[in-house]
């Protein structure tokens, strides 16, 4: 994509309303624009990152055996009355009426909706287990939306819901999602630490929050320093196997939010704990028959007995993850995207488009990289070199290829690594060979 044709409304100055780095940089980099408090339009650059995150989430859900569906954003109130949550949920739920005066709501979550789908379709124990997920926009009317997409009112969420015959099967489903989450965040370059958590309005007695350490995190967290050295991607997870021993191994290291942390019972003394702030990027819940029993989601066993389905739910804040990624990957010049979620793999800078040699070399490199399947953002604008460097550093593409008059005369290209700042100068063909390699 040529930057001269791309819609990228970058800002030179820091917006006064932005309190954290991710909000500030997303506005400055032209990724989002506020529509109203806590509600944003996603512009081309931001949407590309959002889709990259969504793809990784989807791939790991599919790998773990979950099946994708798509449920509506607007739900009927009667389903929530069946579960008992219509009055209990609180003012975060946006309640509306349609033209026939029927009570509806803009979904903050989907336990009731998916339970209704399953109870209408699954009647026998032979049809279990199942895990259904969707990626859909949600709305929660936060009292004080802030920090940009980190705590917005409208947000993109992945919800998965497991349905099992008994507690053992339900725990296996929970464990599968536990490891799918660890893999999902690790593929984005995030070390998300699972911590026992309160279940809140979702319900149940088993829950983990997945926390990314960050100075701007909303909660205080405590963990064993060995968590900072873990690598879930170093080995494959066999989702068909008994995952309980592996689950116990991974949760043996201490980690707790301030809600759960008790210095008196902590296995490590304060001076041996990592104490930090954390950003929640996902949460898992096992709540048994909390929804299936009152809503009539039962299955019949071989002997004719009818029992309620055991359930769990599993959420990942897809849009929130974009903010968390920036909080974990930025410097004073801008964003530094991990390769797996970067909107473009490469920023190509022509320092002097008016110079025939520069333009010819940059155009040649651009065409050959596109032919090799490399996604390139090509700065072909008539702007100063300083402005071009500042824009590329701000938007944070992992690599930059720079074509200037001196290099063009020798048919050489300068490559820069955005994260390390390392630079090298290569011939055109060598640059193409290196940039066309998949990371």
Descriptive keywords:
about 450 residues; 9-stranded mixed β-sheet; 5-stranded mixed β-sheet; 12 helices; 23 strands
Explain what you see:
By secondary structure, the protein is of the alpha+beta class. Helices cover 29% and strands 28% of the residues. The chain has 12 helices and 23 strands. The chain has helices at 21-28, 44-63, 77-83, 111-121, 167-187, 244-250, 292-295, 318-328, 356-371, 385-395, 405-409, 428-435, and strands spanning 32-36, 39-42, 67-68, 74-76, 94-97, 103-106, 130-139, 154-164, 192-196, 206-213, 219-223, 255-257, 274-288, 298-300, 306-308, 310-317, 330-331, 334-335, 346-350, 376-379, 399-403, 412-417, 423-427. The strands form 6 sheets. Strands 3, 7, 8, 9, 10, 11, 12, 13 and 16 form a 9-stranded mixed β-sheet that branches. Strands 20-19-21-22-23 form a 5-stranded mixed β-sheet, sandwiched between helices. α9 (356-371) links the parallel β19 and β20 (376-379). The radius of gyration is 25 Å and the shape is elongated.
């Amino acid at each position: 994509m040529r930057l001269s044709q791309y819609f990228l409304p970058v800002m030179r100055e820091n917006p006064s309303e932005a309190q954290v780095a991710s909000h500030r940089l997303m506005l400055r980099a032209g990724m989002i624009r506020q529509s109203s408090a806590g509600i944003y339009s996603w512009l081309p650059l931001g949407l590309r990152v959002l889709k990259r995150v969504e793809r990784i989430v989807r791939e790991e859900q599919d790998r773990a055996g979950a099946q994708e569906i798509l449920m509506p954003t607007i739900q009927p109130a009667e389903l929530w009355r069946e579960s008992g949550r219509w009055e209990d949920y609180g003012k975060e739920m946006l309640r509306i009426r349609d033209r026939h005066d029927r009570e509806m709501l803009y979904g903050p979550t989907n336990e009731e909706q998916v339970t209704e789908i399953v109870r209408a379709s699954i009647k026998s124990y032979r049809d279990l287990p199942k895990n259904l997920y969707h990626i859909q926009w949600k709305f929660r009317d936060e009292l004080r939306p802030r920090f940009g997409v980190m705590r917005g009112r409208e947000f993109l969420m992945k919800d998965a819901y497991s349905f099992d015959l008994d507690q053992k099967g339900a725990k296996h489903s929970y464990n599968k999602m536990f490891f799918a989450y660890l893999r999902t965040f690790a593929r984005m370059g995030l070390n998300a630490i699972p911590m026992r958590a309160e279940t809140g309005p979702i319900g149940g007695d088993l829950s983990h929050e997945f926390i990314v350490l960050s100075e701007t995190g909303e909660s205080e967290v405590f963990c064993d320093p060995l968590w900072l050295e873990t690598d879930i991607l170093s080995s494959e997870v066999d989702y068909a196997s008994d995952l309980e021993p592996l689950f116990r191994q991974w949760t043996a290291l201490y980690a707790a939010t301030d809600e759960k942390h008790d210095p008196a019972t902590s296995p490590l003394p304060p001076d041996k704990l990592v104490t930090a702030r954390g950003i929640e990027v996902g949460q898992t819940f096992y709540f048994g028959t909390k929804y299936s029993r009152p809503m009539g989601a039962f299955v019949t066993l071989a002997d004719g007995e009818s029992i309620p389905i055991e359930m769990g739910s599993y959420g990942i804040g897809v849009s929130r993850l974009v903010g968390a990624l920036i909080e974990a990957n930025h410097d004073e010049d801008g964003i530094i995207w991990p390769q797996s979620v970067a909107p473009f793999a490469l920023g190509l800078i022509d320092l002097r488009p008016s110079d025939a040699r520069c333009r010819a070399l940059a155009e040649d490199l651009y065409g050959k990289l596109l032919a090799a399947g490399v996604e390139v953002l090509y700065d072909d604008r008539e702007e100063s070199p300083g402005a071009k460097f500042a824009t590329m550093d701000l938007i944070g593409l992992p690599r930059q290829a720079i074509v200037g008059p001196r290099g063009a005369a020798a048919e050489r290209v300068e490559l820069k690594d955005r994260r390390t700042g390392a630079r090298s100068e290569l011939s055109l063909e060598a640059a193409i060979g290196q940039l066309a390699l998949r990371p």
